[in-house]
Design goal:
The chain is α+β, with helices and mostly antiparallel strands. The protein has 7 helices and 9 strands. The strands form 2 sheets. Strands 5-6-7-8-9 form a 5-stranded mixed β-sheet, with helices on one face. A 4-stranded antiparallel β-sheet has the order 1-2-4-3, with no helix packed on it.
Length: about 220
């Protein structure tokens, strides 16, 4: 029996089959990829295909002996769906597709995904990028969030769902994409070095104090 996350697989309720979650950066796919994943799902008789809250496509109900073959045929990396790491970055369509977008959420999200997806940390770490204040990427419950406004990005920190939910707090307004990426790097490094095992970023901020955390990150 595989451990959760081993080979990108997650054991299901029946204690016999597994789900795998291919990495779909930003939830943007091509028709060719959708066709391939559908053909593989049929070939290996999966029980369900589930669009996840992080815009991944889970293949549910795979036999353990088929997992290596499925990954080989898919030709993509696993999505970081379990474990203490940076999970798949959730983004809205932003200025690329949406008439309401005020900042390029897909561009910022793609760079964050490239830098941090799967990066090991003391606990799971979720990032959201919304191109406007409608916040379709639900940054309000993300450890680190970016909201696009006319003059730049607003950086939000400390949100999470789960048994002890927290809403984000505003760290800084009106930063450029380059500044947003630099702030993200400082936050992740500070979290990596100072968080207790299992602590979300919001709990670390509570312990440090929000004003002190602002001084540390913003200088």
């Amino acid at each position: 029996m595989l451990k959760d996350g081993e080979k990108g697989a997650v054991l299901q309720r029946d204690k016999e089959t597994y789900a795998i979650v291919p990495h779909v950066p930003l939830g943007v796919v091509t028709p060719e990829f959708l066709q391939k994943i559908a053909e593989i799902a049929v070939k290996y008789n999966v029980k369900a295909m589930k669009l996840t809250s992080a815009d991944r496509i889970a293949l549910v109900g795979l036999k353990e002996e088929d997992i290596d073959k499925v990954w080989e045929e898919l030709g993509v990396d696993p999505g970081a769906a379990v474990g203490a790491c940076v999970r798949s970055i959730k983004v809205c369509p932003g200025t690329t597709f949406c008439r309401l977008g005020q900042q390029d959420s897909l561009g910022l999200g793609a760079e964050l995904d490239k830098r941090y997806h799967g990066y090991q940390l003391p606990a799971k770490f979720k990032i959201g990028v919304s191109g406007c204040v409608n916040d379709c990427a639900e940054t309000c419950i993300k450890d680190l969030g970016f909201i696009g406004k006319p003059k730049g990005w607003t950086v939000m920190v400390g949100g999470c769902g789960g048994a002890r939910p927290m809403l984000y707090r505003k760290l800084v307004d009106n930063v450029s994409t380059e500044e947003a990426l630099a702030i993200a790097d400082k936050i992740i490094k500070f979290y990596e070095e100072n968080a207790k095992k299992g602590d979300r970023l919001g709990r670390l901020i509570e312990r440090v104090g929000f004003e002190e955390f602002q001084k540390i990150i913003l200088g």
